[in-house]
Amino acid sequence: MPVDPPVGDVGDGGKKHKKGDKGDKGDQGDKASTETAHPDVDPDGVDAAEPTEADEPTAADPEQPGKHDKKKAKKAKKAKKKKHGKLEFGGRLLAREAFVRLKDAPHVVAQGTLNSARVKSEYSWHEVRAELEVELATKVRVKNAFAQLRLADVTTKVDVRAGNFKIPFSGIQLTSLWSFPMADRGLVDNVLVHRLQVAGRAVGGMMVVGWPVAWSPELRVGMFQGTDDAGNALAVRGRDRFGQDGVVRMTVKPTHGLELGLAGEARVGQLQEVAAPIERGYAGELDVTLNTAAGPGQLRVWAEGMLGTSWLVAGNNPGHTHATFGEGRGIAAWRLGGAGHGKRYVELYGLFGMVDPDTAIQHDLVVEATGGLTYGAWNSWRLQLELERWQTGSNAPIGIVELGLAPTTSTTLLVQLGARL
């Protein structure tokens, strides 16, 4: 069963930065999941409270012994933060027990896993930000490692970023995993990130421009390192764009709680075969994110559609070297409670997604359907019960779900406990 692909989702377990920073999309209590501060930074966290100066003593409230010293200490602490910057730490833990039944298998198998053990540190000082996030479960993997500089902040906000972080493609992939109601992003996300390579994290550079006008438009333009099927960086000639992927994304917020996104990309890749040529692919996507009140609770919706080309093909026709793929998925969740940090809540959710790896081939669909229930304390901990059904068509390309493995169909019941550090 695939582990959640690399992503909060930048910054799945981190804390929100001060006003002026840009952030990854994530739900903030009853606030819209699209209200963000830093691209690819999980906005679910809450800044540690800044020290505040005590009220000045008055004649009716004479200053007590030691009170002046406390005020001086607070002032000194605040000045030190401003001079040397701010360093924060965070993380998350996700542990699960899964009961899996493979198609045609005689028995149900059970497996306990540590799905995620992530630690994160963030540093900010004036116009500079830096972030380091590492996944420790299974094996050590760097998730986010980047530096960001704000070039303009008077009217139009302009940021530049370099390092390893999320490609600005797919609103669902850009949203922090902790913000989602599900235990993980699921099968379709795994295909998009690891096999079609249209989303996820990569080494590169990006510019973000935001305009303080109606609908709050924001533009992200980036160049990222392309890889082969195994994730190895491509080192190729200029005719193959030096192995670089170009991505552009535009978002607008027509009203409170609603965000619309449109993105396109041109990418390069290579199959894991002897003397395999460098391939080129293109993709475009449209996504919608909604967070609004619904009766006594809160409704959250994510939806997206995608169309593109790929070098992953099915069949034995040597002349069929490129495929056109399509993808669509939607997530809906209704929550009761959880209006603030630590508040108890219960949430019902469902996900349905589908990928057609090659529109010229029949019986090759990759389909997933998920439903579940979450109970927990908002932005603190949660317990999830989830049922998943994953299905792959008989003509799906070998390795469409995981490199080197034949497609399979499975039903999974899982229980997952998560905590935010």
Quick structural gist:
Helix content is 7%, strand content 47%. With 421 residues, the chain is mainly β. It has one domain (69-420): Porin.
Identify low-pLDDT runs: 1-63
**Do you know the CATH topology?**
Porin
Share in helix: under 10%
Tally of domains: 1
CATH class, named Mainly Beta
Tertiary shape? globular
Q: What is the H/E order?
A: HEEEEEHHEEEEEEEEEEE
- Kindly, what is the distance between the CA atoms of the first and last residues, rounded to a whole number of angstroms? 26 Å
Output the strand order for the largest sheet. Answer: 1-2-3-4-5-6-7-8-9-10-11-12-13-14-15-16
The largest β sheet comes out as: 16 strands, antiparallel, barrel
CATH superfamily: Porin
Mean pLDDT: 84
Number of helices: 3
Per DSSP, what share of the residues sits in E-state strands of 2 or more residues? over 45%
What is the radius of gyration computed over CA atoms, rounded to a whole number of angstroms?
Answer: 23 Å
The total of beta strands comes to: 16
Class by SSE composition: mainly beta
What's the architecture in CATH terms?
A: Beta Barrel
Spell out the blueprint of helices and strands.
Layout: H1 67-84, E1 86-102, E2 109-125, E3 128-135, E4 141-152, E5 157-166, H2 171-174, H3 187-195, E6 201-210, E7 218-225, E8 244-255, E9 258-269, E10 279-294, E11 297-310, E12 323-337, E13 344-356, E14 366-377, E15 381-392, E16 410-420
Antiparallel strand pairs: 1-2, 1-16, 2-3, 3-4, 4-5, 5-6, 6-7, 7-8, 8-9, 9-10, 10-11, 11-12, 12-13, 13-14, 14-15, 15-16
